Amino acid sequence: MDALKLDMQEFFSKIAPGIEFPQPNLTPEQRQQLRTSFTNHMNLYKRKCDATGKDIVTAYHPDIDLKVYDIEFWHDTDKFEAQDYGRDYDFSRPFFEQFAELAKEVPRPAVIRGHQYDENSQYTNYAGKNKNCYMIFDSDGNWDCYYSYGISNCRSCVDCYRVNDSELCYECVDCSNSYGLYFSQDSENCSNSAFLKNCIGCKNCFMCSNLKNKEYYIYNKKSTKEEFERVMQFVHKRSEIERLQPHWNDFKRKYPQKYMHGFQNEDITGDYLVNCKNAEHCYDSVKLWDCKHVTRSVDAKDVMHSDEVVDGCELVYESAVVVYNSQSILFSYLTLTDCHDIMYSGYLNYSNNCFGCIGLQRKKYCILNKQYTEEEYKALLPKIIEHMKSTGEWGLFFPASISDFGYNDTVASDFFPLKKEEAIAQGFKWVDKIEAEYGQGTKDVPDDIFEAKADITDTVYTCKESNKDYKITPQELKFYQQNGIALPNKCFKQRHKERFDQRNKRVLFDRTCEKTSEPIKTTYPPDSGWIVYSEKAYQESLT
């Protein structure tokens, strides 16, 4: 199947035989914005558990009117049963109105993480199998990692974005299989280096781009061990790092970029794709097959207009966060483990044949959390679909008003930024910042890491950019001192934003390779100033 001709009707006949779907009334980008407004990865708050009264860490802002339970309590079916909130379907009222009422009553788990596999990692979200980790998100299988997003199988990594199978890395973006790598991007199998871009198999290098299997290089020129050790001392001081940054930004733009980031793909359009086939307008994904408008997904097949579909899932449409061997999922969010034949539902585990349900675990043949027999369910479901067609709801994802989060707390705000007035005008919620967390500290962070004293962990600092307060934890300080890296003078959210901004937007442009003139589709805008090559031309350019 040609990736650019993935047929929607053929897809619908596989995912829901015999059911008709209307043409969407929103663009793919608008649909993705709506879906991702139901996901908060990175913003954590302190609240009271509504079941036990104990203090908990949660993704739900204190101003959001919801019942929130400690994650272990929520998963214990002897203590909490979402089916107790079940109700009859009312054909005199719109479905979304009924679902919103049910959703407000059913408690939420404080965060989404593999709590049964985690160890000392309670300040994480959308994460699992982590040990001694703090403020890492959308991340799995890490030890002793802090302040990072999208990392997996890492050890002692701090302030990283989309880094895999690496150790002792700092301020890296889209790097893998690396050790002792700092301030680098799009590099793999590199070690003991800083400020690398598009490098492979390099070690003891500084300020280098597009190099392969090199050692002791500075600014892409051969150097000595003594020269390298001297320049690496620059990372001890924040003032030196800030002095070098403009030079680094100019230097790396002199070298060609591959039109897309990824490898071992066939018939794809998008960016940051690996081992994908027939994937159209897809991003940040691995092992996709016959997918269209999909982001942040792994090992998924026959998925369209969905986000975060992970680990053996297939036949998913207009859904967000579908994981672990789930299939035939439509218009849903957070179907977490081994679910199938689910429509218009959220926060489900090990459930099947559910419609309009929330918070169920190990249930089947339920509508609005009420139990039915198989025969009753199959008789009622077509009537509900016809009712939704008459109200104009069928085929649409949930309205923004049903989201559990303020827009500014969600993944949507990263990729589709809005001001408060714009978000509210479009029907999204908004949460205001907690003023006590801003402007209460000092901006005088020690410049040289070796001048920092142990008592700085008691000091409140204020971000030089966002004015948000932050602290240096003892674990962080130890990492910075052992690796000779200057302390940050910006809060985690600001640091994350700057790493996020190093990537291109998820927009494709028609360009030509600047070496061969062959046509390419790339996320590098024509006016970006970057030199962009086709796959073959780029590989030939590496030195």
Descriptive tags:
543 residues; alpha/beta; 12-stranded mixed beta sheet; 7-stranded mixed beta sheet; 33 strands; 30% strand; globular
Write the SSE topology.
Layout lengths: L7 H8 L12 H9 L8 E4 L6 E4 L9 E2 L1 H5 L19 H11 L2 E2 L3 E2 L9 E5 L5 E7 L5 E4 L11 E4 L5 E7 L2 E7 L5 E7 L5 E7 L5 E4 L2 E2 L2 H8 L5 H15 L4 E2 L3 E2 L2 E9 L2 E19 L2 E20 L2 E4 L3 E4 L2 E5 L2 E4 L2 E4 L2 E4 L8 E4 L2 E2 L2 H18 L19 H5 L4 H6 L35 E2 L6 E2 L3 H10 L8 H9 L8 E4 L6 E4 L9 E2 L1 H7 L2
Parallel strand pairs: 3-4, 5-6, 6-7, 7-8, 9-10, 10-11, 11-12, 12-13, 13-14, 16-33, 17-18, 18-19, 19-20, 20-21, 20-22, 21-23, 22-24, 23-25, 24-26, 26-27
Antiparallel strand pairs: 1-2, 14-15, 27-28, 29-30, 31-32
Word description of this protein:
The mean pLDDT is 96. The protein has 12 helices and 33 strands. It is α/β, with parallel strands linked by helices. The longest helix is centred in the last third of the chain and has 18 residues.
